[in-house]
Amino acid sequence: MAVKKNVTFLFLFPKETGRGTTLHRMNVTRFLMKTLRSGRRTLSPEGRRRISRFVLSNQGPGGGFRGPDGISEDTYYSWFGGALVTTGRHPRAFVTLRRFVGELSRRGAAPMSLPETAAWSALRRMTWLKRKNVDLSPFMTPGGGYSHLPGAVERPTSYGAYLARLAAESAGMDLPVTPLAEWEPASGASGLAAEILLIMLAGAPGDPAGRRRALLSLVDQAGGIRPHAAGTADALSTGAGLTALKVSGGVPEDLRTNMARFIEACWTDSGGFREAPDHGAPDVEYTFYALLGLGALT
Fold first, then answer.
1. Running DSSP on this structure, what letter comes out for residue 138?
2. CA 88/CA 104 separation, integer angstroms
């Protein structure tokens, strides 16, 4: 992987519009997209072209992006593909993606999960369609948190609150933050990263330092971040974890080289990134998180 040296990047945020425990302090989606652009800019022109060819090859004839099965055009994976298309500036792919999102909106099919709801809301915003409120009530739990599935069939989680945040801000909505103590405690990399981002960017009450230490405990000695204590490092956990470390004080200098090497090892000849250096097929989700991780290292 050809990576530029000494790339600097300035994060630009909307002005703070409020205080307290309301999710309207900063735009998390904008932060993620700017970090993604930063990651893409660390690559050589040929590296960027390789990734672009892979991303475009995963867009289906209907305009949506395919998941790991390589067949179905999926709302969830279309968010990752759309983010990569937007940052890569591919106008034709953008136009066909916009048609895909417009068709989803016309059909009015209710998303089956909170991740799909967040993806649909973000895709509407990403493709410049008119903002439309999203109904998060099916996922709300009695305590005010958010479950991944409708009907409050699961305990509220920090990642559920994070997804609700992404869905609401894409729609231009405001919603209250539930105190972290009422969420199911995070122990994995994705949940810890979500909590840190909500604390640092959205003003959620909580201590980022303890969560940062817990996240650092998941760093693998060979590079990368494990999804949980007993797991093996993967591109998703590494990208999400590095983003949270960056916003909560920076990625420690002694970890940077191994982290970059781990991400590089996940890059395949196809141009996409896969789950881990020694297994998994490349897809747009892992490619998104790999570039996010590179952006966090700048």
1. G
2. 24
Q: What are phi and psi of 197, to 5 degrees?
A: -65, -40
The per-residue b/e assignment along 1-14, b for 16 or more CB within 10 angstroms, e otherwise, is: bebeeeeeeeeeee
Q: What is the pTM of this model?
A: 0.88
Q: What single string gives the DSSP state of each residue in 220-265? A: -TTSSB-SSTTS--BHHHHHHHHHHHHHTT---HHHHHHHHHHHHH
List, in order, residues 6 or more apart from 33 with CB less than 8 Å away: 83, 86, 87
Closest listed residue to residue 239, CA positions, set 196, 286, 199, 272: 286
Question: pLDDT by residue (tens digit) across 143-193?
Answer: 778 888 888 667 788 888 899 999 998 998 887 666 555 566 677 999 999
Q: What backbone torsions phi and psi does residue 88 show, to the nearest 5 degrees?
A: -90, -10
CB atoms inside a 10 Å sphere around CB 91: 7
238-249 b/e with 16+ CB inside 10 Å = b? bbbbbbbbbbbe
Contact by Cβ (8 Å): 248, 196? yes
Residues facing residue 43 across a β-bridge: 3
